[in-house]
Design brief:
- The protein has three domains: 6-208, NAD(P)-binding Rossmann-like Domain (Rossmann fold); 218-303, N-(1-d-carboxylethyl)-l-norvaline Dehydrogenase, domain 2; 306-449, NAD(P)-binding Rossmann-like Domain (Rossmann fold), CATH 3.40.50.
- It contains 18 helices and 14 strands.
- It has helices at 14-25, 37-44, 55-64, 74-80, 101-113, 130-144, 166-171, 185-195, 210-241, 245-253, 274-287, 293-305, 308-317, 344-354, 367-378, 393-397, 417-423, 438-443, and strands spanning 6-10, 29-33, 68-71, 83-86, 118-122, 152-156, 176-179, 205-208, 325-329, 358-362, 387-389, 402-405, 428-431, 447-449.
- Strand 5 (118-122), helix 6 and strand 6 form a beta-alpha-beta unit.
- Helix 9 packs across helix 12 (293-305) and helix 11 (274-287) runs antiparallel to helix 12 (293-305).
- The longest helix has 32 residues, at 210-241.
- It starts with 5 loop residues before the first strand and ends in a 7-residue tail after the last strand.
- Bound molecules: uridine-5'-diphosphate-xylopyranose.
- Uridine-5'-diphosphate-xylopyranose is lined by residues 159-163, 221, 224, 228, 262-264, 266, 269-271, 273-274, 333-334.
- Residues 159-163, 221, 224, 228, 262-264, 266, 269-271, 273-274, 333-334 line the site of uridine-5'-diphosphate-xylopyranose (UDX).
- NAD(+) binds at residues 34, 39, 90, 125, 163, 276, 341.
- InterPro entries: 6-PGluconate_DH-like_C_sf, NAD(P)-bd_dom_sf, UDP-Glc/GDP-Man, UDP-Glc/GDP-Man_DH_C, UDP-Glc/GDP-Man_DH_C_sf, UDP-Glc/GDP-Man_DH_dimer, UDP-Glc/GDP-Man_DH_N, UDPglc_DH_bac.
Length: 456
């Protein structure tokens, strides 16, 4: 059994923190390292720097039990773990390829300081071939110290966590993908015993070669993003033809080859993974002389889809929105997170500001993060641009002409429609997530424009 393995996790972002906390919860002794002293301070004082359901509790309880520690001390973190997870950021370069500087710096620090066998595990989403670069970086550091003979393994272990469900995804995974070198039984055995407690069905641990493991991550996200862009494109067609994309979704999803999950047309995909991974895969394909028409299309459709709400607003109010006030429900790129990265709400808000509208925006948890990123997007405080961030869904409606729904938080699902109709001057809702039944909206006296369904 894996109990009591010594593990280091480098990087305390979403992936690193969830990985560290969940591995500690299984009884391992985990040290989490970050160069950002502010993050480590928050963690050491019993908080977490992100919003993720269930994470705070397991961070606190495992820290209290002494199984989970947070440090900025590189020497200590390298000395601690036999397993060294690299879970640092891989932001897109200007050309869309993943920037590996943090990954390789982490690898170098391990090579510089290790004194015994280590398994170095790429958890960050990295392009195919990164494990080779990690290996070279570690070997180079060892050689500089005259320790070329010191044994280490490099493993690829991509994550498939969904924000908002990350703890559950880690604890009860659909599958765990582990890429190891052929014949590296030592690393394979350690990875098997590490994940055994999380996997009741042994066939969910997929051991493969390193390049295939690295590629699997991109292939998975690219496939999911493709489904979404495909549905979004169909939704536009459904609208002009007078069909209902929700009926079509059920109609096609009941074929098990298609499946019902992840087929929702909406306001476009955002987040830290899909936009970045689609770009990176396109870049890799181009670099290898096989430019990807699919990825280019997936990205272009998504860029256009992020404009869909603004386009619908323009279809009703024309080009000039001065004197209009819009309530906006939901800012995070999806529910149960405060993550604003690549969120469709940012595209909408920029357009509302550009056309002179007043905005009253509400998000259950992302308000603070939204204020921060909007200031960057707009180049001024949101209030100065006419955006007021309010504390409840009802407050957002006050004085509004129409409501725009961008994120499908649960609390938006069953509003009091009569109250909505009387609060909104124009009795109008633009719904980017298809939360309501059009017929019900009509009965409540609301004008309702949603995605890929007949307007009413
Ligand atoms: C995703 C993958 O699901 C996960 O496996 C991977 O490890 C990281 O990227 P995440 O970005 O957290 O996870 O969010 P996810 O729930 O997958 O949603 C991504 C985006 O797609 C969101 O903007 C969401 O609104 C959108 N989406 C999702 C749709 O528009 N329609 C759908 O049917 C599903």
């Amino acid at each position: 059994r894996a109990h009591g393995m010594k593990i280091t996790v480098i990087g305390t972002g979403y992936v690193g923190l969830v990985t560290g906390a969940c591995l500690a919860e299984m009884g391992n002794h985990v040290v989490c390292l970050d160069v950002d002293a502010r993050k480590i301070d928050i963690l050491n004082s019993g908080g977490i720097p992100i919003h993720e359901p269930g994470l705070l509790e397991i961070v606190r309880s495992n820290a209290a039990a002494g199984r989970l520690e947070f440090t900025t001390d590189v020497a200590r973190s390298v000395a601690h773990g036999t397993l060294q997870f690299i879970a640092v950021g891989t932001p897109p370069d200007e050309d869309g390829s993943a920037d590996l500087q943090y990954v390789l710096a982490a690898a170098r620090s391990i090579g510089r300081l290790m004194t015994d066998y280590k398994v170095i595990i790429d958890k960050s989403t990295v392009p195919v071939g990164t494990a080779d670069k990690v290996r070279a970086a570690v070997a180079d550091e060892l050689a500089q110290r005259g320790h070329s003979g010191m044994a280490f393994s490099v493993v690829s272990n991509p994550e498939f966590l969904k924000e908002g469900a990350a703890v559950a995804d880690f604890t009860r995974p659909d599958r765990v993908v582990v890429g190891v070198d052929e014949g590296d039984d030592r690393a394979a055995m350690l990875m098997r015993s590490l994940y055994a407690p999380f996997i009741r069905n042994r066939d969910r641990l997929l051991v493969m070669d390193i390049k295939s493991a690295e590629f699997t991550k991109y292939a998975a996200n690219a496939m999911l993003a493709t489904r979404i862009s495909f549905m979004n494109e169909l939704s536009r067609l459904a609208e002009v033809m007078g069909a209902d994309i929700e009926a079509v979704r059920i109609g096609i999803g009941s074929d098990p080859r298609i499946g019902t999950h992840f087929l929702y047309a909406g306001a476009g995909y955002g987040g830290s993974c899909f936009p970045k991974d689609v770009k990176a895969l396109a870049r890799t394909a181009a670099e290898n002389g096989l430019p990807s028409q699919m990825m280019a299309a997936v990205e272009a459709v998504n860029d256009a889809q992020k404009q869909v709400l603004a386009r619908k607003v323009a279809s009703v109010y024309g080009e000039d929105w001065r004197g209009k006030t819009f309530a906006v429900w939901g800012l995070a790129f999806k529910p149960n997170t405060d993550d604003m990265r690549e969120a469709p709400s940012r595209v909408l808000l920029a357009e509302l500001v550009r056309r002179g509208a007043q905005v009253r925006a509400y998000d259950p948890v992302a308000a603070e993060e939204a204020a921060r990123v909007l200031a960057l997007d707009l180049g001024c405080a949101p209030e100065q641009a006419g955006i007021t961030l309010v504390n409840s869904a009802t407050e957002a409606l006050s004085g509004a002409d129409a409501l725009i729904i961008v994120t499908e938080w649960k609390e938006f699902r069953t509003p009091d429609f009569e109250a909505l109709a009387s609060a909104l001057r124009d009795r109008r809702i633009f719904d980017g997530r298809n939360l309501y039944e059009p017929a019900l909206m009509r009965d409540s006296g609301l004008h309702y424009l949603s995605i890929g369904r007949p307007a009413c």
